[in-house]
Amino acid sequence: MITWLVVFAALWLSALVFFSYRSKRQNQVANDYVFAGANLGPLLGMLTFAATLFSTFTIMGMPDYFRLHGVGSWIFLAIADAAMFFFILWFGHKLRSRGMEHQYDGMSSLLSRCYQSRFAGWLYFVFVFLFMIPYVAIQIRGVGIFFEAIFPDFLPGWGWSVAIVTLMLIYSEIGGLRAIIYSDSLQATVLLVGIWIVGVACIQNAGGLTELFTQVRETHPELLSTPGPQDRLSFFYLLGSLFAIMMIPVTQPQVVTRLIIMQSTQKMHTMVISLGIFAFLVILPTAFIGLYGALNYADAPSREFQAQVLLFEQIAPVGAIIVIGLLAAAISTSDSQIFALGTEFRSITNQGKSENLKIMRLFVLFFGICALVFAINSGDQLVPLALASFKGTALFGPAILLALFAKRSVGILPLIAVLIAEIIFVLYQFKIVPQNIGGIGTYVILFVSVGLVALGSYLLKGRAAE
Q: For residue 210, how many other CB atoms are within 10 A of its CB?
């Protein structure tokens, strides 16, 4: 496999060099560097959106989630993603309209203008930073774990993490968002092909799709219903996950940017529909891999299961593709989010109209170092960390929707509600606040409460205006 790995790694690195060089030549002004010329077509839009959403979390985290929690994981991710794509079709119109109206240079500055308060922009930036850094870190951590398992005598996990972050920062600093988008298109294609090859191999090794589910029913019947063997996938857990995932296009700056820079609203519609099909295709094989893992690696640690199924059971070329695909996925998602944080810092510090990108580049470097430190010190549970990141940023969703859809000032009460909810959510993560209150999931209560405060502010301000 080493020979195949060297060949594919050389091809992939050559592609990165080409993308960086080409992008640097195309970036004539600062806005080209930051927003890729704001001229994104539906195909590239779909691929870059997919690469941002589906990454190490999907390749490594979701098979393990199916292995541990069963078919309810489909409700957790696939159904929630479908709801998110329908939501984008409605939300995208207003986002693009308000973004063009206010000359969009970042969600932080857009919120400051809509709320007529810099507090709104800084609040958004601070909490996006706090919750996105862990998500970036798990991409790095996930690949570091995988590489340490397959090359135990070459580098420790932290060494792989350093190498990944270094490559990511060099690449994104040179080519900007345009280079990231080109890289995304390659990564998304490799991800889809690679995950299906492994999924089909797992079905064949189990004796066919029917036999796979028959064996699971006989040996682990609790995997075929919710809440699963560990009682994780309860109603309120799934409802909270739905809220969190639906809010990704509202609250995650790297996703918002991709909606803004589409060539037109009509092409955004085409992109979203294509993305829905891609999501179904990329998530489905993770269910086969996970259920196969439940049959053969039920008691194995996550990293052993992932290394065995994704690599050691595959023929050499496939194993090499998976290794490169994982590395590309981690870098593609991480650099998108790190770059988005740099864009938000540029936005909130009123440098959005400046051609000077030095400060933004310095902070992209700073955010990358923060993610590296978190990756080295984080655990192996990729999906829970990812979901915590989604949920944390999602609490800002109602306040953002209110800012975009309200045609009048609504005051800062919704922002105060967000601040209180975020503090409680952080305490919830450290188990200082209980997981359920009165039989209802605490996160669901927090999200609904912020939504009600936002709606109440809108209605009360409307009556006062009349």
A: 10
Question: Looking at residue 464, what is its pLDDT?
Answer: 43
Rounded to an integer, what distance in angstroms lies between the CA atom of residue 65 and that of residue 60? 9
Six token digits for residue 302: 């996550």
Q: How far apart are CA 330 and CA 222, in angstroms?
A: 32
If one counts the domains in the chain, the total is: 1
Who's near 383: CB < 8 A, 6+ residues apart?
A: 57, 61, 62, 64, 65
The DSSP bridge pattern shows strands 436-437 and 440-441 to be antiparallel
Spatial CB neighbours of 373, under 8 Å, sequence gap ≥ 6:
none
Quick: pLDDT tens for 354-400. 677 888 888 888 988 988 888 887 665 555 667 788 889 999 999 99
For residue 99, the enclosing domain spans: 2-378
Query: Does 264 fall in a domain?
Result: yes
DSSP letter at 262 equals: B
Q: Among 64, 151, 149, which residue's Cα sits nearest to residue 384?
A: 64
CATH number of the domain bearing residue 7:
1.20.1730.10
How crowded is residue 348: how many other Cβ atoms within 10 Å of its Cβ?
23
CB 423 within 8 Å of CB 445: no
Cα 449–chain centre separation:
25
* C-alpha separations of 312 from 56, 148, 317 in Å: 18, 14, 11
In our burial notation (b when 16+ CB lie closer than 10 A, e otherwise), range 177-198 reads bbbbbbbbbbbbebbbebbebb
Tell me the average pLDDT across 53-59: 79
How far is 66 from 51, CA to CA, in rounded Å?
Answer: 21
d(CA 180, CA 162): 19
- As given in the structure block, the two tokens for residue 271 are 């992109």
Assigned domain for 277 exists: yes
Whole-angstrom Cα distance, residue 406 to residue 186? 39
**168 lies in a domain?**
yes
pTM recorded for the entire structure = 0.86
